[in-house]
Amino acid sequence: QGLLDMMVAEEESLKERLLKSIALCRKELDVLCKELQLDPFEAEEESTILQMEKNLRTRVEVMLKQKRDRKQELKTLQEQDRDLCDILCTTPFSIDSNAVPSLEELDRYRRHLAALNTEKEQRREEFVSSKRQIILLMEELDHTPDTSFERDVVCEDEEAFCLSTDNIAALQDLLRQLEARRSLNEAVCTELRARIVALWERLQVPAEERESSA
């Protein structure tokens, strides 16, 4: 009888511990479902207390992992966002850093960063192409970069150049200015050559002398 009473007491103690664990798991699941923006978890009422406690505990562990994974992905996306914002001089994506992001928010964030990466590549290509033309024009015009912006453009470290819309616009403006200066110089040269030819004709300069100075 003593042994039986002890066994019954142990079983009742185990049952009490399981019921407490079930109550705690239910509370934790309610909080996790709200944080993860999921429907409330419904445990199978037909199962035994032992099985129910195990199922609930397993579910808590799964949802805790989902929470950690989402928070980690959010952190990774925000790091990428900061790098892109530094390069493109744009504002960061609006999202609550303290809350657990929903799957939809993470998907929107990923698509936003994909669009920023595409924009960065387009601006980078535009910058590299314009820079190449600007350097050639400066060499042709014997122009030394005399402003901080011009020096930033022709410097070797292309990654350091801020690809903001203002900088890209200023880059195009600089390119247009140099092209206009070259066009002006070409027009002046054409006019001077025409005057030289006219003077050659008036002075009846021999062809050999013209060729040597042409």
Unreliable spans are none
Measure the end-to-end span.
Answer: 127 Å
Q: Gyration radius, to the nearest Å?
A: 37 Å
Shape: rod-shaped
| Main sheet summary | none
Helix content: over 70%
Oligomer: single chain
Beta-strand portion reads under 5%
Structural class, from helix and strand content?
mainly alpha
Q: How many beta-strand segments?
A: 0
Order of helices and strands: HHHHHH
Mean pLDDT: 91
Number of helices: 6
Structural features, described:
There is one protein chain. This protein has 214 residues and is mainly α. The protein has a domain at 1-72. Helix content is 78%, strand content 0%. It is built from six helices and no strands. Helix 1 (2-35) packs parallel to helix 2 (49-88) and helix 3 (103-141) packs parallel to helix 5. The longest helix is centred in the N-terminal third of the chain and has 40 residues, at 49-88. The radius of gyration is 37 Å and the shape is rod-shaped. The model has no long low-confidence stretch (mean pLDDT 91).
Any key phrases for this structure?
214 residues; mainly alpha
Short description:
By secondary structure, the protein is mostly helical. The protein is 78% helix and 0% strand.
Furnish the topology, listing elements before pairings.
Layout lengths: L1 H34 L13 H40 L14 H39 L6 H7 L10 H39 L3 H7 L1
Helix pairs in contact: 1-2, 2-3, 3-5
